[in-house]
Structure formats: C-alpha cells, structure tokens
Amino acid sequence: MEFEKININQRKQRVLIAPLDWGLGHATRCIPIIYALISLNFEVIIAVDGPIKNLLKKEFPDVVFTHLKGYKIRYSRQKSWLPVKLLSQFPKLLWRIYREHQQLKAIISAHKIDVVISDNRLGLYSTVIPSVYITHQLKIKTGNAFSERLAQKIHYFFINKYTACWVPDNESENNLAGELSHPLKKPAVPVKYLGPLSRFEKIETQKKYDVLVLLSGPEPQRTIFENLLQEELKKFTGTVLLVIGLPEAAENNSVADASNKITVVNHLAAGDLNKAIQQAKLVICRSGYTTIMDLIKLQQKAVLVPTPGQTEQEYLAKYLMEKKLFFAMPQNNFSLATALENAFNYPFVNITIEQGEYKKVITAFADELKTV
Questions:
Q1: Is 26 found in the same domain as 128?
Q2: Same domain (yes/no): 81, 174
Q3: What are the start-end ranges of the H helices in 212-263?
Q4: Residue 96 — very low, low, confident or very high, per pLDDT cuts 50/70/90?
Q5: Which class for 72: exposed (0-12), middle (13-18), buried (19 or more C-beta within 10 A)?
Q6: Res. 259: pLDDT tops 50
Q7: CA-CA distance, 109 to 105, in Å (whole number)?
Q8: Which residue, 209, 224, 201, is CA-closest to 274?
C-alpha cells in the first residue's frame, strides 16, 4: 500500500480518531490512546456526534472535533426479537459504512489528516494514508456456528482494508475477552495486542456507597434496566449511587428518596467516576468490555448483568464468572437482594494485568510513520 509522504519537520502529524457510537465504551477506551498520541506530539482530531461527543469534549476541551454521524443502532425490547431487529437495520448499517467512507475522504482533505484510527467503525479505512482498526471482537458471538463464521468473514473483509488491527486485550492466556479476542484464525493485516485499556487510576479512598449502579448501552434496554433497578432499590436500605448513563442530559444531582440513601446522577466526569467506583463496596453494571477493563484495573468487585440478546456481553459475563473475576446474573430474573447475597459469598479472584502495553504499540507505530 502506497502512502503520501509526510513532512514531519513542517508540522505535527494529524491523527483522526473515530469511536463507534454503540454505547459509551468505545469512546472511553479511546481516551488513554488519545492521551498517548498527544504525549507523542500528534495533533488529534476527533470525529463523533451525539452523547459521546459531549463526553469526549469534557475530557479534551482543547481538541478539534469534526462531525461524523453515528450508526444509531437500536435494540428490541424483547431478547427473542433482537436478531430480527438487528437484521432489519443491516441495510442502514451498510449505507452508513459507505457514507462514512466517502465522508472520510473529505475529512482527510479538509483537515490534512495523516493517520486514521477507527474504533469499530468499519468504513474508516483509507488507501492514501495509514489506517488502524481497533476491536476486541475478532470473533463475533451470535449463538450460531454458521452465522458466527459469516459474521467473522464480513468483519474480516473490512478489517483487511486497514493497515493494522489493534486489539485491547492481552495476547497471552491471561486475557479478558477469551475467544472474542483470540480466534483460531486472525485477519490478514498485522494484529497488535494493546493490553487492557482504561482511563482510570487506582487511588486510596474511603468506602462511601454500599452499591454503585452504572447504566449504559443502547436503548431501549438501558431504560428498561433503569426502571427495573429503580423498583429494586426502593426495597434496599443501604447507600446507593445510581449513574444512569446519560452524558447529554443535565448533570444536576437528585435524591431519589427521603432518607437520602439513594443518589441519582445522569453522568459523572472521568475523575469523579474513577473515585466513585473505588468508593463502592460493590458495582452493578453491564458486562460491556470497556467497563470490564476499568473494573479489572481498579480491582473492584462487581455483578455483571449483560444486555439481553447482546451475545458478546452474555459470553463475557459467563467467561469472566468462570474465571471467578466477577459474578453474573441475567436481567430477566434480576433481583437486587439475590445479587447482593451471591456477591457477598462469591470467591472473587483479583488479578493484576499489565496496563502499559498500548503505549509501546503506539510508540512503535509512531516510529514507523516517520519512515513512511
């Protein structure tokens, strides 16, 4: 693949970062990558829209943003209808991939982009400059062997259009994503393992909450789980912080009950969330991969409740429970009392995973660019 020559003596190299808008996790796991790129003297431009734009603007107020429409995938209310719901959106998804690929050409020209880094956005590959694709799902779980093979072929078709693929997990057996990040067959392009990514840091703090609830993910399941938890929390007498995962909403705190035991916030800034997780005795959250990486780094006990029908989350919850890293429960029969009782008696295993591998990979990538 031939790339345009970059005169690094005239200006900083410009890198475009574009995370998928499927929940907040793709954006938050890009945060340490963005900081690493800035520390290596790259000029970062972020291509997003919607709630993740608000989140990243708060984290990087001085970074240039450009508009890139999201996929806006929606889930069904019933797990059994999810495959049909997703399949019905497939033509829209393909059109969005085509459109973002065309839009990328205009962005490269307008902003004089030198490198593209796409977190799970399939259409942001380029034939004129290096492009990197980030994913932890080299194998896509569907629950059906035939559709899994088909999904992997489609995924690899797009991955192989990129210059390289970065996987946010360990390459060794001491990994967090299991088969998802370690399939039997890998893409044809170079694959580099970044190690787990987290924007958080472990700190010394006092326990303040019995339970921290973190809501996230696509609608309508985010709201369904919120309503379920609101009912369950009415019967709970402990202290609770409920973060409902709406960064686009106003961030005024509100007290949910007269006893001041339950505090509800729409969203927490990174530093506040970092602290709140470590102030909790137990976290209840989705089994989204970014959340898992954060919890592992902070060595926090948690109950994972996968989004119904999201086979990746269901696989991760089962896989990590088998490794005794977390306790897991399905949403359809979730009971707060049962979750707390089981979690209290569960033999959690703490593991320490090297967190700095991504800096080595990005530094090596930056050095390669100087020779292009």
A1: yes
A2: yes
A3: 221-233
A4: confident
A5: middle
A6: yes
A7: 6
A8: 201
**Rounded average pLDDT over 245-263:** 64
Interval 123-136 mean pLDDT: 96
Residue 113 contacts residue 14 (beta carbons within 8 Å): yes
236 and 323 in a common domain = yes
Classify strands 262-265 and 254-255 as parallel, antiparallel or unpaired. antiparallel
3-state secondary structure of 215: coil
Overall average pLDDT of the 339-354 stretch: 87
Looking at the structure, tell me whether residues 60 and 37 fall in a common domain: yes
What is the number of other CB atoms lying within 10 angstroms of the CB of residue 218? 16
DSSP state at residue 162: S
Q: Is the dihedral of CA 360, 363, 369, 371 positive or negative?
A: negative
Sole residue written with tokens 């431009």: 45
- Between 145 and 84, residue with greater pLDDT: 145
Query: Per this entry, what is the length of the chain?
Result: 372
Q: Are residues 243 and 310 in the same domain?
A: yes
Give the DSSP H/E element, type plus range, for residue 359. helix 357-370
Same domain for 48 and 187: yes
Q: Are 171 and 194 in contact (CB under 8 A)?
A: no
Q: Which residues contact 306 (CB under 8 A, 6 or more apart)?
A: 286, 287, 313, 314, 316, 317, 328, 330, 331
Q: Which residues pair with 251 in a beta bridge?
A: none
Is the Cβ–Cβ distance between 150 and 128 less than 8 Å? no
Q: pTM (2 decimals)?
A: 0.87
Task: Please spell the DSSP secondary structure of 70-129, one letter per residue.
Answer: -------SSGGGHHHHHHHTHHHHHHHHHHHHHHHHHHHHHHT-SEEEEES-TT---SSS
